Amino acid sequence: MTADRTRTLLMEAIEASPFSQEEIAADIGLSRKSILTMILQGLTRVPLYLIPQMSRVLEIDERLFLMTATEEYYPEILITLTHRPGFSREDIELGLLTMCRSAAARGSPPTF
Q: Are the CB atoms for 111 and 77 separated by under 8 Å?
């Protein structure tokens, strides 16, 4: 099951959007609406590498969306990064966004 805060954020953005789920899925670059449906039903997680596109299409704050998902799906990554000297939360957010944007440009998910 996908975490509730991330899914809620996505559901609220989709409900506020004037576009259908089919249009949203296509604009995000999903080959099928069923992937979006599975995320909304809590059957799968939001792929982090899709967050930049989802944020753009649904007008969600990209950093908020990414950090919400990362905190829920991969809390150990944030714990590890926040306990390293010299890394601010902003540095961490920017690093994660850069990684997800790069993965999206390649069309492949980032690996952790």
A: no
Average of pLDDT values for 108-112?
Answer: 57
CB 57 within 8 A of CB 10: no
Tell whether the model's pLDDT for residue 108 goes beyond 70.
no
Rounded Cα gap, residues 37 and 84, in angstroms: 37
* Closest by CA position to 92, among listed 84, 103, 18: 84
Tokens standing for residue 3? 């975490």
Is residue 84 in some structural domain?
A: yes
For the chain, give the mean pLDDT: 84
Inform me whether the pLDDT recorded for 83 exceeds 80: no
- The CATH number of residue 20's host domain is 1.10.260.40
Total number of domains in the chain: 1
**Over pLDDT 70: what percentage of the chain?**
90
